Amino acid sequence: xxxxxxxxxxxxxxxxxxxxxxxxxxxxxxxxxxxxxxxxxxxxxxxxxxxxxxxxxxxxxxxxxxxxxxxxxxxxxxxxxxxxxxxxxxxxxxxxxxxxxxxxxxxxxxxxxxxxxxxxxxxxxxxxxxxxxxxxxxxxxxxxxxxxxxxxxxxxxxxxxx
Length: 162
Hints:
Blueprint: H1 2-16, H2 45-72, H3 81-84, H4 90-112, H5 117-146, H6 152-158
């Protein structure tokens, strides 16, 4: 049924103007493809910058408490010595944290502006993880100051095993 309709249509087109070819389609004659309107990505600026501020404050607290612990205990070493060094200066703590947390904030910002929900969720996770790691380190540093590990002399005197 379709074949006779196509044949009739082409025959009618030839009969209307015999010997003349149809015009080639131009740019203006082609319909543009429909554009799909996507919903804009909602980016919570205040929440993001608040979280970046929490990350920065926790990084400062982490650097200060780590550096303080190393100053009061000559046997103390940085747990992340592969990153900071065994006994880093305060400037090294800050320089390393600026690079690491600045990169985390930049990556998080880019991910949060994605159109994909999974990537936006990962963006929130990146900056929250960075802040959480620093806050956990502050907790460990404070615990170490309040309850220092017993030295050999203290453990022998208290009667506890090694």
